[in-house]
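COMPLEX REQUEST
Ligand: 3-methyl-2-oxobutanoic acid
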Amino acid sequence: MKRVYIFDTTLRDGEQVPGCQLNMVEKLQIAKALQELGVDVIEAGFPISSPEDHNAVVEISKSVTQPVICALTRAREEDIEAARSALRFAKRSRIHTGIAVSDIHIKHKLKTTRQEVLHMAESAVKLAKKYADEVEFYAEDAGRADLDFLAKVLQTAIKAGADVLNIPDTTGYNTPADWSNKIKYIFETVSGIDKVIVSVHCHNDLGLATANTLAGVLAGARQVEVTVNGVGERAGNSSLEEIVMIFKTHPELGFDTGINTKRIYETSRLVSRLMHMPVQPNKAIVGRNAFAHSSGIHQHGVINKRETYEIINPEDVGVKLSSIVLTSRSGRTALMYRLNMLGFQVDKNNIDEIYAKFLRLADKKKEVTDTDLYLLMKQSKDQGFYSLEYLEVSIKLTKLAQARVVLSKGSNKIETFAEGNGPVDAVYKAINQALKIEPHLEEYLVQAITGGSDDIGRVNVQISYDDRVFYGSGSDTDIIVASAKAYLDAVNKILIKN
Ligand code: KIV
Ligand code: ZN
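STATUS: Structure written out below.
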């Protein structure tokens, strides 16, 4: 197996996205998660761009020691000095310096000449070489550059001492075949290329980032520049989880990464939560529906043998189970499978009656949830669920938020009051008090179902209790009410299980 190095730029290219900015604590949290995931290089920031970015590189260098820590610069002395200072605590440091090489960038952005670009590239690499353990050179907009000039710049960077050459398709312009030819051309024409690592950095403007990254590796690149969930400028970067799982799913390609794939899902959710970037439900590998099956035929197949409709074992990426989404198209096998998983004893002898009830419910609802199934199966009066009878929340800018909730189950009502860091925290504490339970909130995700400020919001939560994970969802025009419903949905499942 040939090793492909994973260069993660979630904290640099990913963090450039408006609205995704992270504070220092969050950056450290992500950097530590990336270390656990097993990435080879973490691009921790662009130190000259702001004091916050500079400090982030310093703090990550101090506490994350296994991967190489990398800092981005332009081909300017002051940038490289800033990177040197930010990287001073790194166990293994890399300066990522470079310059644009396409004519459109040279003329309209840099307002300079090809000759000057060659000179700046050489000086930048030479200076960076004095300050870091490794130097990576990027040829920005290589994807639209004149190939002979690109080869010349790369040659210059090698001569000046670069250890890694990054070939970015900055605007996501190339198709896989073109990209492959360009990388092959570089291998054929640049002397000394066999002494350095060639890296590909692909953007997703045409939805081809992953395909181009793969094409780059097949053409000889041995480092890939990726982000978790594919976050990044415009349509994003090539996604870490996709490229890693391509190599794992296709061992015949002969490539290996050092990624602990079982940590992919958790890392994806951490990045999504901290960057406020929901993962699209049908996103490959980490989307909520990536392992969900809704048609009866598929469900039947997956239940009999997972591989009929799944090419990846969900557990390999840290997803506990493939999910069978119950709808009116689901058959008896799927219903039985799900009910048995929820702890009900159902078999061929008693399924018909339950299935008839299920179909009546499924005709009214788009999706039949676990909560619906519990209600469908409830055997005695007090096996029912708590529901939200009343909710009052008060928020004042300078004070803790307050929540009053009334929960009911049959004729039984419980009223509680709690304070919290925000309205959702206060509501969750009030529910905990009412039900005398303290689960751990693992994930909280808000999504708008339709557009506009009067739309329906849907909240999904994941909580853990006694080493088990429970999911809940709720929707409402008020996001706090949706949050309360989602949490109560999950807590009810704990109560019925205990
Ligand atoms: O897309 C790009 O060209 C970049 C470089 C700065 C490496 O992000
Ligand atoms: Zn980029």
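REMARKS: The mean pLDDT is 92. The CA atoms of residues 24 and 56 lie 6 Å apart.
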